[in-house]
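Troubleshooting log. The previous structure file for this entry was overwritten by mistake, so regenerating from the original sequence record. Sequence copied from the archived sheet and checked twice against the printout by T.R.
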Amino acid sequence: GDSFDSFPNGAAALFGADAIPSAGFAQLVAFIGALELGVMKDIEGTGNEHVGDFRNGAIDFGWDTFDEETKLSKRAIELNN
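Regenerated output below.
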């Protein structure tokens, strides 16, 4: 296999002479497409608290235990990243 440092940075990693193999690029596109179309959906009516809340009533990493002030603070921190 190839190590990460054997590929160039930026667009050259996709289109240059030392680009990642086309099968690897196809795997990346297929995986991202599957996430976008099947997993990362904002399903209404599943308890989502805000736009971008992709838990859809299934995953909870302790978010519901925070008070409103902490939730607002964490959202602001994430948006400012």
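The mean pLDDT is 84. Archived copy saved in two places this time.
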